[in-house]
């Protein structure tokens, strides 16, 4: 499964990059395949391990912010691995034709 999620601290002002970095650090230290862009961090693995990473990432932000907003989207597709790369590769292949 792939989960794309965004963690936003509330009540800490406009500059939230430091808080978001705490969440991304948790994801990167998990060892699971992941990718971060301007809006979301995606992480790939089995249900329990991915949700555990998301929970720890939220907790890292929650430890320093009075309120946290979380947005998640999941692609649950048993038997598929390396979906983060293969899905993008498929689109790129179609674009190059």
Automatic annotation (TrEMBL):
Domain Thiamine-binding protein: 3-92
Lineage top rank: taxon: Bacteria
InterPro entries registered for this protein in UniProt: MTH1187/YkoF-like, Thiamine_BP, UPF0045_domain
PANTHER family: UPF0045 PROTEIN ECM15
Designated name of the protein: MTH1187 family thiamine-binding protein
Organism: Streptomyces rectiviolaceus
UniProt family annotation: Belongs to the UPF0045 family.
């Amino acid at each position: 499964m792939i989960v794309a999620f965004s963690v936003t601290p509330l009540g800490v002002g406009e500059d939230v990059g430091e808080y978001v970095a705490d969440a991304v650090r948790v994801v990167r230290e998990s060892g699971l395949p992941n990718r971060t862009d301007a809006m979301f961090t995606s992480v790939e693995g089995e249900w329990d391990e991915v949700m555990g990473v998301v929970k720890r990432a939220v907790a890292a932000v929650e430890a320093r912010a009075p309120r946290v907003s979380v947005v998640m989207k999941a692609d649950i597709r048993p038997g598929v691995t390396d979906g983060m790369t293969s899905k993008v590769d498929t689109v790129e292949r179609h674009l190059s034709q």
